[in-house]
Amino acid sequence: MTAEVRVPVLYYHRVAPDADPRTGVTPKQFSAQMALLGSLGFVGTSLERALNWKEGSDTMNRHPLAITFDDGYEDNFTFAAPILEGFGFVATIYFVAGRMGQTVDWTPDPVWSGHRLMGQSLARELVGRGFEAGSHTMTHPDLARIPDREAWREIRESRDRLSQDLSCPVTTFCYPYGSFRDSHPSMVREAGYRAARTVRRYRLRGRSDPFRMACRPVSGRMGLPRFALTLMSYRMGLRGGDLP
Ligand SMILES: [Zn+2]
Known about the structure:
Elements: E1 9-12, E2 14-15, E3 24-25, H1 27-39, E4 42-45, H2 47-55, E5 63-71, H3 74-86, E6 92-95, H4 120-128, E7 132-135, H5 148-165, E8 172-174, H6 184-190, E9 195-197, E10 216-217, H7 224-236
Parallel strand pairs: 1-5, 1-10, 2-3, 4-5, 5-6, 6-7, 8-9
Helix pairs in contact: 1-3, 1-7
The chain binds zinc ion.
Zinc ion is lined by residues 70-71, 136, 140, 176.
């Protein structure tokens, strides 16, 4: 019996010197994490490329680890991208299609609200540099709390809008707040995506499902030793991140 090939997925929000530890990491922390990832033999890449690798259509001589960012903060362009590129890595950024170039308006929580989101020209530049643009809906609603027809519009329209505005295919989706109803994963598939990421740390009943992918959140509260342990457990395959 051959062991299942797994590719772990990490997820971040902000990367900025002033990031509240609940919302992100500092560039210094991020840089130390990426250095560790490289020294343990991983290559940080987009979810799309990791999926291609798993399917055999992308070759990488090191084990891929997908790095994903939710919401598309402008600081991802300013701080995260140059650090990633310094290690030869790229990542996936999940943009809120109807809020690009604006500020966070979907929560009154002062820790999150008001932060600047990346505009289209910077996002296009990152796509040109090999980053993946994924969809995080049009307006960042809690999909489980809106009618299905609105959920469909959020899922479908954001894909069309992003692929048009950024001139690139948009193939992966990310549920805001990790929240969705049972009907949504199939909607995501029907809208033309190949995979969707949740915020769950473990797979549902151990089952592999490309439209309910698990991941490991990384915040500023996670120290480097714990980050190292997570990566080492991935390497040993004790409890991998998720890929279908
Ligand atoms: Zn989000």
